[in-house]
Amino acid sequence: MAYLICTLIIFAANATLILGQAEPVISLSGSDHEVSFTGSGFLPTDTTCSVSSPSSSGVIFSSACVVQVGTGAPHGGFVIGNVLPGSYVIQVTGNYGDFAQAIVQVDGGGSQTGVSQVAGYQPGSGVSIEATGLLPADTTCHLSSSSSNVILPGTAACVIQAGTGVAQGGFIVGNVLPGSYVVQVTGNLGDFAQTLITVG
């Protein structure tokens, strides 16, 4: 019996170590067509990394990514290609298959990253949003609006890192009349958060 108790304690300790591994994350910054990124929480055994976009192969015209062994912190940058305005998912992948995603908002002549206050937009404007307090078990999310076509069809994107309850996304404002519109971020478990966007 004592042997079984010791075995259970060892397994519990191993489980704690596995759960303690940080999830990979990346953050984007930049202006115009040039975007840089930094990452953390990747596997310390990664020796190379790459940049891609599940949204569109054309959004990345050229890219570079480097990671120093043992750090789990890739960094690099990319140049936005000739794509239509909209929100695109950017993915940085380590050579062991670990990856993280973020949203880049392409708005006409350049790119915009980060979170904006949702107020005072015009049709055609790019909007970036962030939602917190969603279920930590969510792994995917999507943007919607029951108000009207305030979200231009085909321009919405949303990503969420499991365990954080924090979703990030963006969209292009559609051709709607001035007013306030409800925008909703919904997690794959049915939880959601709402905000108002003011157009005009």
Please identify the top-level CATH class of the largest domain: Mainly Beta
Question: What's the domain count?
Answer: 2
Strand order of the largest sheet: 1-2-5-4
Question: Mind telling me the C-alpha Rg?
Answer: 20 Å
Helical content stands at under 10%
In the CATH hierarchy, the third-tier topology of the largest domain is known as Immunoglobulin-like
In CATH terms, the superfamily of the largest domain is Immunoglobulins
Distance between the termini: 72 Å
Please state roughly what percent of the residues sit in beta strands, choosing from under 5%, 5-15%, 15-25%, 25-35%, 35-45% or over 45%. Answer: 35-45%
Number of helices: 1
Specify the structural class: mainly beta
- CATH architecture tag of the largest domain: Sandwich
Choose one word for the global shape.
Answer: globular
The counted number of beta strands is 14
